[in-house]
């Protein structure tokens, strides 16, 4: 059974005349007869019978007629949906992110994008930057926003959106909060809560090694939320990417003495990735001066 047969059967039931069906569909009457006979033959059932001048449907024919309307309506709806896909009105955008962008540029980006594209679903994966890079390479996600300090992947297109330096984070009432400049010696007097993995931890380890610093680390976590919640209203310190503090007014950032080279928040996707309209729209939204 194909679309043409379904359409012929529907009109035949409604018009009760093969010639009328042929005229409506722009085909010949023998073509109508051929397809109607093939439907009966294909199902191995009698779909209708003639009674006087009219054709009556059998029980099987009635069921087929009911479903032809459903199928044709669904096909019309599907055609409309495909057109909406072409116009970026429907679909799912698979985005990967490391932790820093989730707390900085992505909330506003998602809000603006979903307002503009209410029928686009966003499937967000949050992992460390190395895992996200692998998912991009393996086509598990469409595009990614990560915090990085440089990586060599010839398969991946990278656009740097903003600098993301490592900073000293503390509660705004911390004893060091009023100091303009903080020394390495100042840091020895306080306990730290730091990341246990990811690009931020790599920057921390680089800084500690270069400055021969032995921090008093009281807790390690892969959750930036738990780190910031714990240092709030306390004398704990942390070393975090500057971008994660954007939406935390009670936590302030201080310049880290002898800070390592700054990382970046970057947009990436495979070089050979076909950029659908819904992907292009998100890239256009996020790759603007709004987020610098």
From TrEMBL:
Alphabetically ordered keywords of this record: DNA-binding, Transcription, Transcription regulation
Family to which this protein belongs: Belongs to the LysR transcriptional regulatory family.
Name of the protein described by the UniProt record: LysR family transcriptional regulator
Alphabetical list of PANTHER family matching this protein: HTH-TYPE TRANSCRIPTIONAL REGULATOR, HTH-TYPE TRANSCRIPTIONAL REGULATOR CYSL
Claim: 4Fe-4S is one of the keywords in the record: no
Annotated GO MF terms: DNA-binding transcription factor activity; transcription cis-regulatory region binding
Keyword Nucleotide-binding: no
Boundaries of every HTH lysR-type domain copy: 1-58
Pfam families linked: HTH_1, LysR_substrate
